[in-house]
Amino acid sequence: MTHQARPAARHVAATAAVLLAVAAAPALPDRPRPPTAPRIATTPPDTVGAAPLAGPSGLPALAEVAARRLFLADAVAAAKFGGAGPITDPVRERELLASVAATSAEIGLPPDTGVRFFRAQIEAAKLVQRGLHARWRAYPELRPRERPDLATEVRPKLDRLTPRLLELLKATGPVRAIPDRCQETLAVARRAAGTRTRLDPLHRAALRVALTPVCRIRDR
Fold first, then answer.
1. Whole-angstrom Cα distance, residue 204 to residue 69?
2. What are 36-84's pLDDT values in tens digits?
3. Distance between CA atoms of 181 and 3, rounded to whole angstroms?
4. Which residue, 42, 22, 211, 47, is CA-closest to 123?
5. Contacts of residue 16, Cβ cutoff 8 Å, sequence gap at least 6
């Protein structure tokens, strides 16, 4: 080997040693990727029910409005995050259910039917709030930048959705009277609503909770 060739050979050998060492080193674990940042609802809730009912039973429309109501749970969670208020609010829940019973009676829906359905909406909303609070505690970078006012910004939008949901629930009376047909139609409607509104797994789980009693309610 010539004098000029020796440095080149040493360089090649050193490079090969480095590459072998890198290949033999254990891979570093990937940092867990945070979940996608939740969306705060921006769709005006009072325009959600403007479209005609999709299908004769109204279940697709009911599922979609229930899904869009869950968007507002994001805003409720943002308003309460950091100790601004408890997720469970018994006073608010009693007020809402009393209003639901009165509105149900006005439109010819049995009050028990409306109240049972809205108890599920309350539980679904609390599921979203708990999930978002846990997510925000684990990933501070996903915390909402704004805290909406519950009394003046969020609850009026929720309240405007209540009559629409009750009207749709009343419209589903005929299909709810046929349990097998109701379950099949509702499952399709729930999946379609989740896709159209681009719900993440947390909100899809909450939508299932919100719609669980639909096919079990019997108007009397």
1. 12
2. 544 544 444 444 433 443 343 499 999 999 999 999 999 999 999 987 6
3. 89
4. 211
5. none
Collapsing DSSP to helix, strand or coil, 10 comes out as helix
CB 102 within 8 A of CB 159: no
CA angle 197, 198, 199 (to 5 degrees): 95
Tokens representing 133 are 């609070």
Q: What is the pTM of this model?
A: 0.76
Neighbours of 167 (CB within 10 A): 19
What is the DSSP secondary-structure string of 44-95? Answer: -GGGGGGSPPSSSS-HHHHHHHHHHHHHHHHHHHHHHTTTTS-S--HHHHHH
Residue with tokens 């681009």: 198
Length of the chain: 220
Q: Measured between alpha carbons, how far is 109 from 13 in angstroms, rounded to an integer?
A: 84
Give the residue-averaged pLDDT of 190-203.
95
**Start-to-end Cα distance in the chain:** 101
Q: How far apart are CA 51 and CA 74, in angstroms?
A: 24
Sign, CA dihedral 176-181-183-185, equals: negative
Query: What is d(CA 165, CA 122) in angstroms, rounded to the nearest whole number?
Result: 13
Residue type, 9: A
- Nearest Cα neighbor of 60 from 189, 191, 209, 215 is 189
Mean pLDDT lowest for which of 3-7, 146-150, 190-194, 204-208? 3-7
pLDDT of residue 23: 40
